[in-house]
Amino acid sequence: VHLVESGGGLVQPGGSLRLSCAASGLTFSSYYMNWYRQAPGKERELVAAITRGGDSTSYADSVKGRFTISRDNAKNTAYLQMNSLKPEDTAVYYCNAVRVVVNYWGQGTQVTVSS
Prior knowledge:
mainly beta; four-stranded antiparallel beta sheet
């Protein structure tokens, strides 16, 4: 199983980025998908989650209204659209696939918000 994140980078405050998580080696549509992030010196935190069919999503309070999680089961890919980025959004972002007790993680992609 492989989860590969992409789309990270350096962006100015107020800017946008779209992260992608390409999955292979698993039945993608059977997994709940999550995006986590971890800033230096902080614990990893759940940012956004989406159900298997994409019909329900949830967000951390800190990103609600700015971030949107989505998925395309035909492309085995999950996305995180991040708008109105703030310096405090700077972190390594990880995608996570979950089914019952099975957990898979990507390697992470760095997002840096700075002027």
